[in-house]
Amino acid sequence: MKIYQVEKPLVATHRISGLEHRHLQVVRDGRARAVAVDAVGCTPGDWVICVGSSAARDAAGSKEFPSDLTIVGIIDHWVPEEGA
Amino acid sequence: MKIYQVEKPLVATHRISGLEHRHLQVVRDGRARAVAVDAVGCTPGDWVICVGSSAARDAAGSKEFPSDLTIVGIIDHWVPEEGA
Amino acid sequence: MKIYQVEKPLVATHRISGLEHRHLQVVRDGRARAVAVDAVGCTPGDWVICVGSSAARDAAGSKEFPSDLTIVGIIDHWVPEEGA
Amino acid sequence: MKIYQVEKPLVATHRISGLEHRHLQVVRDGRARAVAVDAVGCTPGDWVICVGSSAARDAAGSKEFPSDLTIVGIIDHWVPEEGA
Amino acid sequence: MKIYQVEKPLVATHRISGLEHRHLQVVRDGRARAVAVDAVGCTPGDWVICVGSSAARDAAGSKEFPSDLTIVGIIDHWVPEEGA
After folding, report:
1. A70 touches chain B (CB under 8 A)
2. Domain ranges of chain B
3. What is this model's ipTM?
4. Predicted confidence (pLDDT) per residue in C68-77, tens digit
5. Is the pLDDT of residue B84 over 80?
6. For this UniProt entry, which residues form the secretion signal (chains A, B, C, D, E) (predicted)?
7. Which residues of chain E from 28 to 67 reach within 8 Å of chain C, CB to CB?
8. CA-based diameter of chain A, in Å?
9. CATH homologous superfamily of domain D2-74?
């Protein structure tokens, strides 16, 4: 799993039906940004744990959910490293 | 998932039969280019969400579809970062 | 598999139910940090082997466990390379 | 999927039985080289589409085929970018 | 698949039971080191083909084997590139 900070929700009105029913969040790991399915209900600024690979699908709710990155937990306390 | 900009369709006349029935798009993430299966019907210039890993297969239409990167949504508004 | 050094446990009170019942560890590979499910019972400073991909799930205890990085062994003797 | 240029066949007399029955090709993406299972019948110099992840297995012929990178198509026309 | 050079066996006395019955090898790809399950019986210095993703599991002997990198072949002749 990797640690990201939630930046903001992402709106994609035109998307495949399989992606509905879950919020998408733009998450940031230093300079890199990714999009994650929100399985915990987080808010911008939260430091979160994201799971990838095939585990992202079960974590999003079902084996058929088309996610490769899912937010699975909010970290209680996190101090990022300088330069990270 | 990752965010890419659609560059242009890709033509590969000689390909395995499993890849037929779907359009391929060259997508760009900064300097890196990849090829994605188009599951939403996008046009060059669109900013899109692409899913990878095993989720790319279901997203392309079936568990047997040989995709490792599938376009699953078009982002309503996206402002890329400078240098990205 | 990759070699990491265990840094410290990670606490995420608010997480999905599937992630319960296993400890999470922050692990470090040079400058990069990741979060791994601990399947062996390690302590900070240990050099460990972590498995990713879908194998991380079985390694964590079941095919349904939502892990993409699991600690599967503690290395007896390991000397990191300079600069690594 | 990613775009590679075929460099040359790879010979590995001593390999697991599961890898037999398919040719292996050394492929190149800029400076990085990889090995791909050839499912289309390509020749050195061809620009090809390679699929990774679990999709590489089906693309190579069966769910049991131990491939993580399979050549699935030959691109009709491709102009690489400078520096790529 | 990727090409690595075998460096040395890795000893991890304390590991999960699923990882037993197979030797682990430290492999090197330029500056990066990884750990691979040895499915062919190689020796230090060998240039080998390693498969990752879910294919690493079948290649290691069964769908349940917790490997994400398995040595599947020894290359007959390999000349690494300078600087690689």
Report:
1. no
2. 2-74
3. 0.94
4. 999 999 999 9
5. no
6. none
7. 33-37, 52-54, 56-57, 64-67
8. 40
9. EutN/Ccml (2.40.50.220)
